[in-house]
Design goal:
Blueprint lengths: L35 H18 L2 E4 L5 E2 L9 E7 L2 E4 L2 E2 L1 E7 L7 E4 L10 E3 L1 E6 L16 E3 L9 E2 L14 E7 L1 H5 L4 E13 L4 E12 L5 E4 L14 E11 L3 E7 L3 E2 L2 E6 L6 E9 L8 E3 L5 E5 L13 E7 L1 H5 L6 E2 L3 E5 L2
Parallel strand pairs: 2-14
Antiparallel strand pairs: 1-4, 3-12, 4-5, 6-11, 6-13, 7-8, 7-13, 9-10, 9-12, 13-14, 15-16, 16-23, 17-22, 17-25, 18-19, 19-20, 19-24, 20-21, 20-23
């Protein structure tokens, strides 16, 4: 014979079987008794709700990468992370992703974000990534896997594993890391200023779900003023010892600050001019005049002498090789009087050019 049950309110939504009641001295709607049928009904409801919430999905969100200002500080690296989701039902799913630079077959960031920049106005960057199973209860399985290098539009060999709703990287804060590296030599060679570029991400997971995303990499290069002279070669005269001789030499001067000073020197001088020395050892000198122009047409030539060896000009500030187009000129001249008054022989000297910021 069943014992008499205390009277109390019925639980709303009870599915049948024995009556579930709440004693009057307990909070309302807190059951103390439920039939087997009721327990089964609640469990079935929870199961249906769980299946509906965990259908399938794939999300990956790589944050923007912003380096601190660089000023001759060596190579740099930034590592960003994410909790990537890839699931079907109540199972984690593997995924892959690639990175691309829409403006090049390599990875670059560009001076002032102008993607047409080349030479020292773009900086190579490299990407690598790694993953871990942040959901595992086994700590030995939550260690990071090895770094995988990314090449443009190529998927690394490893398959990464995402988390799923309800897990949410439950035992570690993240399950994906992306490292961005820039070499010291590339930063040292870069034109000073702000660099940036936007990269695209394409992913696919084990279920065939795909995604696309973008992220930006940026750095400000605080470069020292930098100048460079290049493209010079030896100059040879042939004289009949009667007429004056003249030769022009064009070359490239690069300056990050555009303006520059150029100092020209030689070991010998005569009568206030530079001089060529007889290589026979006679000690004879042949005066030679030197003029400089910061163009290749000879417009505005300036005299350069041992007493006034420094002149200024404006260089190319976009390419340290002037884009293959010279922008400065030296004119060497020997007068007919100096030629006719010299002894037969071979005369030479070495000029040294020192270019510096003003």
């Amino acid at each position: 014979m069943k014992p008499a049950l205390p009277k109390g309110p019925k639980l709303v939504g009870h599915s049948g079987g024995e009556q579930a009641v709440v004693p009057t001295d307990r909070p309302k709607n807190l059951p103390v008794f439920c039939s087997r049928q009721c327990i089964w009904a609640v469990a079935a409801c929870m199961s249906v709700m769980s299946s509906m919430a965990l259908a399938s999905g794939f999300t990956l969100d790589i944050p923007n990468v912003t380096f601190s200002n660089w000023s001759d500080d060596g190579a740099v690296q930034e590592v960003v992370d994410d909790c990537a989701y890839s699931w079907s039902g109540n199972k984690n799913k593997k995924y892959e992703f690639s990175i691309a630079d829409a403006n090049s077959s390599d990875f670059y960031i560009y001076y002032q974000g102008v993607t047409s920049n080349t030479g020292n106005k773009r900086i190579p960057v490299s990407f690598s990534s790694r993953w871990r199973n942040a959901d595992s209860n086994n700590s030995s399985k939550r260690v990071w896997k090895g770094w995988e290098a990314h090449t443009p539009n190529q998927i690394p060999d490893d398959d990464y594993k995402g988390t799923r709703p309800g897990r949410d990287c439950r035992n570690e804060p993240t399950n994906l890391e992306l490292a961005v590296d820039i070499a010291q030599a590339d930063l040292e060679n870069a034109y000073g200023g702000a660099y940036s570029s936007t990269f695209s991400v394409s992913g696919v997971n084990q279920n065939g779900l795909t995604l696309s995303d973008t992220f930006t990499v940026s750095i400000n290069v605080e470069a020292d003023d930098y100048v460079r002279v290049s493209g010079m070669d030896d100059v040879a005269f042939t004289s009949n010892f009667v007429n004056a001789v003249q030769a022009d030499e064009t070359f490239c001067i690069y300056s990050t600050v555009t303006n520059y000073d150029i100092n020209i020197s030689a070991p010998n001088s005569s009568n206030g001019q530079f001089a060529l020395l007889d290589s026979s050892g006679s000690g004879a000198l042949l005066p030679i005049s030197v003029q400089f122009a910061d163009n290749t047409t000879g417009t505005g030539l300036e005299n350069v002498t041992p007493a006034a060896p420094t002149v200024d000009g404006q260089g190319n500030n976009s390419s340290d090789s002037c884009g293959g187009v010279n922008n400065a000129m030296l004119r060497y001249s020997v007068t007919a009087e100096a030629v006719s008054g010299s002894a037969t022989g071979t005369y030479s000297t070495t000029f040294t050019l020192v270019v510096s910021p003003p």
